[in-house]
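Project outcomes to date are best conveyed with an example. Our students and postdoctoral researchers have been running inverse folding experiments weekly, and each run begins with a structure described purely in tokens. The record below, which covers 211 residues, was selected by the lab manager from last quarter's runs and is presented without edits.
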């Protein structure tokens, strides 16, 4: 009798181990949770460029947009909120479809390609050379529950060859319509459009023909 109980216990243990292994293989989420919904910002279309009409007469220049560098937490798929002072927590039911730095790189190149007359704007890829190079660091991008706002800190640098021409620092705060991950993404869309427009106006005085 004792042997039969021992055999049943062994079979139950074996079945449990098999179930755990299968769950890990197929990526089953814990009980009570669902697979995170993938969210993304949207492509921004330039609206009302503030550039002078004389820009149309400038010689054709080239500008490379590098992917923003970011801390490890912002370089992945997690979307963050501040649950307390100096305490960031990822949303469990939502994540980025594409990491935020990659989205900013792609959308910024598309935006500047349409808004900077007389400038060819490229993504930073092997073999691509240019007159100018734009680098940036995304230092902060999360929902602050206390203020119910999106907080962003970002630096950008413009190079002509190897020479640093100018650096900018931005600290943005954007109100949320709803304190959720989708609400954070909506606020991020508003922030991104504002930042693109500010950066466009900031870049233009420095994009002059090489001597």
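After processing, the design step wrote out the following sequence:
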């Amino acid at each position: 009798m004792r042997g039969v109980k021992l055999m049943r216990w062994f079979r139950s243990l074996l079945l449990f181990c098999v179930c755990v292994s299968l769950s890990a293989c197929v990526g089953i989420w814990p009980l009570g949770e669902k697979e995170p919904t993938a969210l993304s910002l949207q492509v921004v279309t330039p609206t009302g460029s503030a550039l002078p009409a004389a820009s149309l007469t400038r010689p054709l220049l080239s500008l490379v947009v590098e992917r923003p560098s970011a801390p490890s937490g912002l370089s992945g798929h997690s979307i963050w909120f501040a649950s307390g002072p100096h305490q960031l927590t990822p949303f469990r039911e939502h994540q980025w479809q594409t990491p935020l730095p990659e989205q900013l790189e792609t959308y910024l190149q598309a935006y500047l390609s349409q808004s900077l007359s007389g400038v060819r704007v490229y993504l930073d890829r092997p073999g691509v050379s240019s007159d100018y190079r734009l680098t940036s660091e995304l230092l902060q991008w999360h929902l602050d529950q206390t203020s119910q706002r999106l907080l962003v800190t970002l630096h950008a640098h413009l190079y002509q060859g190897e020479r640093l021409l100018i650096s900018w620092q931005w600290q943005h705060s954007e109100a949320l319509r709803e304190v959720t991950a989708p609400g954070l993404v909506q606020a991020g869309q508003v922030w991104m459009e504002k930042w693109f427009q500010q950066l466009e106006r900031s870049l233009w005085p420095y994009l002059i023909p090489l001597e």
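Helices lie at 2-26, 72-75, 100-115, 181-203. The first helix runs from residue 2 to 26. The training component of this project remains on track.
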